[in-house]
Specification:
416 residues; mainly beta; globular
């Protein structure tokens, strides 16, 4: 095997090796560098990478060190002040959701007006309107990292796959018996998962539009689902108080994660895929061992429902959002609370880390989105201007742009 070139993955940090086999086929292998920080010793790390990876010859040591330095630059916390770049009154009827593509140069909005719209971030212009659903468009996603497709899930019981550039509907995915409330693509963008009020999730082939598996076992609606970073496992969270981990290839349930005493609100895998988290109406967040299905920690402290949970990109911290108007950040390694985040005057329904894992944002019913230092609990900035509850917020891939979606029927783009 012969090493051809290196490719950098900035968030989370990683080094991808492109190599050629003896038969001429070209393959890739990624070295995760999840512990890389501004304080990492690059000489020692480069030596470790070269010594441990047979594909990298000694002659590439200096190049590896230079590439690690580039990755390390991206881990530094930068001082940012976000300003309102664009305000878009996107739809006639209320918004349901919004999301960036990977580069952040486009975003999508869903609405009660039964459409999804694709927007140009720089100009605020509508690129295309995705029309065809017969009821509310509730769930939506780009096929990151490619961005050439959009998936929408609707209260009309169908998902649709669209060409994000032309607006053509590629497939209408029928099979669910009731409203679709969550969906996501696998990392390879070959599969789409949908979760429904009919207590099931389904896996669909993106290329053909065919249903591959129905994930049966929950006894109440599925409100959250996510693939792991390799795309071979999926987690679902349900109002039946449990989450389930499924094998994607067979559609078989591997583990049922039981222990919560209330409905599940949110689930996620860490980047490594060995841990999963679930937030619940029972006021707790639980951390689970994916291979055993056992609960490792129960994170307590909130005095009302936990409405959202998220790992930071490298998986070292967890943020929880609650109806008690606060957020909390916990250490993944110890389960200890690092900081509590006080300042909102209404429930926090959505939280999201920046790609560096140094900051997070929180969307609240108090009509504001706050930017926080994830380590100290200090509020760095309050993004004001919405006139009703903010239900959605997200960073772009680089962390220099934020999108907020509100019940005031506007989307706002904030840039630093």
């Amino acid at each position: 095997m012969r090493l051809k070139r290196f490719l950098l993955r900035y968030y989370p940090p990683g080094l991808t090796l492109e190599y050629e086999r003896s038969n001429g086929t070209v393959e890739t292998k990624t070295i995760d560098l999840l512990t890389l920080s501004p304080h990492s010793n690059l000489d020692a790390l480069a030596r470790h990478v070269v010594d441990e990876e047979p594909l990298i010859p000694e002659s590439r040591y200096e190049q590896v060190k230079q590439l690690l330095a580039k990755l390390q630059e991206k881990t530094y916390d930068t001082k940012q002040v976000f300003y309102l770049f664009k305000m878009l009154r996107a739809h006639i009827l209320p918004l349901t959701n919004c999301a960036f593509n990977k580069d952040g140069d486009k975003f999508i909005t869903g609405s009660y007006d039964r459409t999804c719209k694709v927007w140009d971030t720089a100009t605020g212009n509508e690129i295309v309107s995705l029309d065809g659903h017969k009821n509310v468009v509730y769930a939506l996603s780009f096929n990151t990292p490619f961005g050439d497709k959009v998936a929408t899930g609707s209260f009309d019981k169908t998902c649709r796959l669209w060409d994000s550039r032309t607006g053509d509907c590629l497939y209408a995915l029928r099979g669910h018996l009731t409203e679709i409330v969550c969906l996501c693509f696998n990392p390879q963008s070959t599969l789409l998962a949908s979760g429904s009020m009919d207590n099931t999730a389904k896996l669909w082939d993106v290329e053909t539009g065919q249903e591959l598996h129905t994930l049966l076992g929950h006894t109440a609606e599925i409100v959250s689902l996510n693939f792991n970073s390799t795309g071979d496992t999926i987690i679902t969270g349900s109002f039946d108080h449990t989450s389930k981990i499924w094998d994607v290839r067979s559609g078989r349930c591997i583990h049922t994660l039981s222990g919560h005493k209330g409905e599940i609100s949110s689930t996620q895998f860490n980047y490594s895929g060995d841990l999963a988290i679930s937030g619940s109406i029972d006021r707790t967040c639980r951390v689970w061992n994916v291979s055993s299905g056992q609960c490792i920690y129960t994170m307590r402290g909130h005095t009302d429902e936990v409405l959202d949970v998220a790992f930071e990109p490298r998986g070292q911290k967890i943020v929880t959002a609650s109806a008690d108007n606060t957020a909390r950040v916990f250490s993944t390694a110890t389960g200890a609370c690092i900081a509590s985040f006080l300042g909102h005057d209404g429930e926090i329904s959505k939280v999201a880390f920046n790609p560096q894992g140094t900051k997070f944002i929180s969307a609240s019913s108090d009509k504001t989105c706050k930017v926080w230092n994830a380590e100290t609990g200090v509020c760095l900035q309050t993004l004001e201007g919405h006139t009703d509850e903010i239900f959605s917020c997200a960073f772009n891939y680089c962390g220099d742009t934020i999108i907020t979606g509100s019940k005031d029927n506007t989307c706002r783009i904030w840039k630093s």
